[in-house]
UniProtKB/TrEMBL annotation:
Record organism: Leifsonia williamsii
Domain NAD(P)-binding: 7-142
Name of the protein in question: SDR family oxidoreductase
PANTHER family registered for this protein in UniProt: NADH DEHYDROGENASE [UBIQUINONE] 1 ALPHA SUBCOMPLEX SUBUNIT 9, MITOCHONDRIAL (PTHR12126:SF11), NADH-UBIQUINONE OXIDOREDUCTASE 39 KDA SUBUNIT-RELATED (PTHR12126)
């Protein structure tokens, strides 16, 4: 089965691609580094539709790195509308989106775009599936990567239940090759963790001497990061790989000498 993966070069996207290949399917990656900018507006739709010819599904795991609600909304509106329009034109019957547990309950900052993405997909009239996940183990690395090596990192105070991106990628690949499910449930990791502590442990594991300052963010969104809004409910599917187990696979940064 031919399946397009928007954002197939990203943290979770590359696992979706691998899982599809391992199951004998044919992934088609859409990303800027592969020559496709999904924020190109109506001008981009024809080229995307041509790439989608013969696809049974599109998995959207494209993302933008921002804390701005308006930037996030602009990105997810543009990518979602471009994909949905191109899918209609190419006759692709199934759109799969990955969202975040708690984003619709705290639709501010980056989550404002995720809440909008969910709404656009649900109202699209096409066959759709939405899987919601918690933060990936790799999110600690993404937060750490925002600072200079060896320097102080400012990290939001946050309670999370991180899951392996590989397990989320495999779940998305499985959903994409089946019938549209609508709400496809939630997926989370096996343990509740304190995110600044995970960033500290990640930095130690890669041999980066940087310290971490946990900062409680203000407002309803900041509270949601801390108060359990982002944690899985009782019906969620739980992944098996712990953050500790994932950390053993992380490579130390080679020393400068
Ligand atoms: N990170 C987490 O902890 C987490 C947790 C739950 C859900 N999610 C969701 O999972 C999805 C993927 O997140 P991620 O962390 O894996 O993202 P990521 O590593 O930042 O990767 C983003 C992907 O999007 C592509 N992309 C960015 N801008 C694009 C554009 N204008 N046109 C086409 N492709 C573009 C990038 O490739 P190019 O740079 O080559 O364009 C890359 O392949 C997002 O929807 C996110 O909300 C993330």
């Amino acid at each position: 089965m031919r399946v397009a993966v928007a954002g197939g070069t990203g943290v979770v996207g590359r696992h979706v691609v691998t899982a599809l290949q391992q199951a004998g399917h044919e992934p088609v990656v859409l990303s800027r580094s592969r020559g496709v900018d999904l924020t190109g507006g109506p001008a981009a739709v024809d080229a995307v539709a041509k790439t989608l010819a013969g696809c049974a599904a599109v998995v959207d795991v494209a993302s933008v790195e921002t804390l701005s609600g308006s930037v996030s909304k602009r990105f997810f509106r543009s990518v979602t509308q471009t994909l949905l329009t191109a899918e209609r034109s190419a006759g692709v019957p199934h759109h799969v989106a990955l969202s975040i547990i708690g984003a619709a309950e705290a639709p501010a900052a980056y989550y404002a775009g995720k809440a909008l993405q969910e709404q656009l997909v649900e109202e699209s009239g096409t066959g759709w599936s939405i899987l919601r996940a918690t933060q990936f183990h790799e999110f600690a690395a993404q937060l750490a990567g925002r600072g200079k090596p060896g320097r102080l990192r400012i990290v939001p105070a946050m309670t999370s239940q991180p899951v392996a991106a590989a397990e989320v990628g495999a779940a998305l690949a499985g959903i994409a090759v089946g019938e549209p499910r609508g709400r496809a449930g939630d997926i989370a990791g096996p343990r509740v963790e304190d995110m600044p502590t995970l960033v500290r442990r990640y930095l130690a594991a890669i041999g980066d001497g940087g310290r971490v300052l946990a900062v409680p963010l203000p407002g309803r969104w900041g509270r949601a990061l801390r108060d359990g809004t982002l944690l899985a409910g009782p019906a969620a599917r739980l992944g098996t790989q712990t953050f500790d187990a994932w950390l053993t696979e992380v490579e130390r940064v080679p020393s400068a000498e």
